[in-house]
Amino acid sequence: MNHTFKEFSTSAIFNIGNETDLESFSKAKQAELCTFIWANSEAIEIIIDSIPFTIESNSILALTPIQYL
Length: 69
Fold this sequence. Notes:
Layout: E1 3-7, E2 12-16, H1 19-22, E3 35-39, E4 44-48, E5 51-55, E6 59-63
Antiparallel strand pairs: 1-2, 3-6, 4-5
């Protein structure tokens, strides 16, 4: 299944293809990479840098290399 996310203020498009292929990226393995958090089917609550966030379903949140869960 293909998922497409659009960011309207910049007209950016982020595509996710095969979810099985994403499994190898589910754990951070290298420093200085961005992290993408995907709330696929339901909203999720997380804490980033000691600040609680709720990510709505069907949304993606990108973290910078200096942000941590």
